[in-house]
């Protein structure tokens, strides 16, 4: 049964396979451009993953993820309104704090967690890509569920998506300096190409919302439905190819990072907006936007930009992060709803009593 563990072995490692293994990148441009290639010798080709998916299924998965991302970005564009963007640009305090949280907290948290848990280089790259991603359409739904400022949520998603074209490559370049053999392995060209590609469907969605607003609700619902369906479909396609599922992505360090990364984003997003004295709805919005990343973009970049032998089963890890951020957000929303219900119930139960007493006094006085 094939092993998917990332090995850091050297020629002196006693458990290293010393047999001659064909280098799958011998004729690839990737071999000459990545930071892992200096170590890919006959003595340590275990740095590469065996083929995780068959070529046909690998291409099928790539196509599915690209189509899903395209639909999601059209759907996201349909939520953006030019007039709302103008209003927040004229009063940029909330947007500035939100962007600071998005591109300040999450990349730094991702870097600290990968260093603290000492994950492998390829896992570090995947986690950093997730941390540097902009917000997605799901964050707008979560902001609505937690009674946040929807205008700020939509504008924040819009600005973070546009800024991603410059911020993602820049932040990855800066933080990847903290890892050996990683800097040259990041596919900057593929990431920039993907980011440019998402602006086209996003712009199409904005135009649809401006010229044909009657279609926006349908497109948004379709986008959300496609997103929800695509995740289990990709997981099923990935797991049925092998005798055993890729359980290595559920290792304790990676699971701890999957739990902590969104939670820290939610927490510090709220704290920063509290420090700058934003109103309560905006605080909750910034918290949701900070901790909830664009999983579709992250998963597509990781799957399409990296060769299968390098990324291995780690391309499924963004889905684990997505499940974690959604679960934590739902818990926070439930807690907020319960708190809101109890406080509202207390006020409602007190008000009728006060009114009855006043009516009683008035009736007695009249008598």
Explain what the structure shows:
This protein is mainly α. The protein has 13 helices and no strands. It has helices spanning 55-78, 82-90, 93-116, 121-132, 137-145, 150-175, 188-211, 216-239, 252-275, 280-291, 295-305, 308-311, 317-366. Helix 1 crosses helix 7 (188-211) and helix 6 (150-175) runs antiparallel to helix 7 (188-211). The protein is globular, with a radius of gyration of 24 Å. The chain starts with 54 loop residues before the first helix and ends with a helix. The relative contact order is 0.15. Mean pLDDT is 77; it is low at 1-47 and 349-356.
Features:
367 residues, mainly alpha
What topology emerges from the helices and strands here?
Blueprint: H1 55-78, H2 82-90, H3 93-116, H4 121-132, H5 137-145, H6 150-175, H7 188-211, H8 216-239, H9 252-275, H10 280-291, H11 295-305, H12 308-311, H13 317-366
User: Distance between termini?
Assistant: 92 Å
Give unreliable regions as ranges. 1-47, 349-356
Mean of all residue-level pLDDT scores: 77
User: Would you list the SSEs in sequence order as H and E?
Assistant: HHHHHHHHHHHHH
Backbone CA Rg:
24 Å
The percent range for strand residues is: under 5%
Number of strands: 0
Outline of the structure:
The chain is mostly helical. 69% of the residues lie in helices and 0% in strands.
């Amino acid at each position: 049964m094939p092993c998917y563990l990332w090995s850091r072995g050297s020629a002196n490692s006693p458990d290293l396979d010393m047999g001659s293994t064909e280098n799958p990148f011998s004729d690839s441009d990737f071999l000459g451009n990545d930071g892992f290639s200096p170590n890919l010798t006959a003595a340590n080709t275990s740095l590469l993953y065996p083929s995780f998916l068959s070529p046909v299924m690998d291409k099928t998965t790539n196509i599915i993820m690209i189509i899903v991302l395209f639909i999601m970005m059209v759907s996201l564009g349909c939520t953006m309104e030019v007039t709302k963007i103008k209003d927040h640009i004229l009063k940029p305090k909330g947007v500035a704090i939100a962007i600071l949280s998005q591109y300040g907290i999450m990349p730094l948290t991702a870097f600290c967690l990968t260093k603290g848990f000492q994950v492998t280089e390829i896992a570090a790259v995947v986690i950093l890509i997730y941390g540097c991603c902009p917000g997605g359409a799901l964050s707008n739904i979560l902001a609505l569920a937690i009674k946040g400022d929807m205008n700020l949520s939509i504008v924040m998603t819009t600005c973070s998506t546009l800024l991603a074209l410059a911020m993602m490559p820049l932040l990855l370049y800066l933080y990847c300096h903290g890892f050996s053999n990683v800097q040259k392995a990041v596919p900057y060209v593929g990431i920039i190409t993907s980011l440019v590609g998402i602006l086209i469907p996003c712009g199409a969605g904005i135009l649809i919302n401006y010229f044909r607003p009657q279609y926006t609700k349908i497109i948004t619902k379709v986008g959300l439905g496609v997103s929800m369906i695509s995740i289990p479909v990709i997981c099923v396609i990935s797991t049925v190819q092998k005798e055993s599922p890729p359980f290595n992505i559920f290792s304790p360090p990676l699971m701890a990072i999957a739990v902590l990364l969104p939670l820290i984003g939610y927490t510090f997003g709220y704290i920063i907006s509290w420090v700058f004295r934003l109103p309560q709805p905006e605080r909750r919005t910034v918290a949701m936007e900070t901790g909830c990343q664009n999983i579709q973009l992250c998963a597509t970049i990781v799957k399409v930009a990296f060769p299968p032998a390098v990324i291995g089963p780690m391309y499924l890890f963004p889905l684990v992060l997505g499940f974690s951020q959604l679960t934590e957000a739902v818990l926070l929303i439930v807690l907020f709803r319960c708190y809101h219900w109890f406080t509202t119930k207390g006020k409602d139960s007190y008000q009728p009593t006060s009114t009855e007493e006043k009516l009683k006094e008035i009736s007695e006085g009249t008598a």
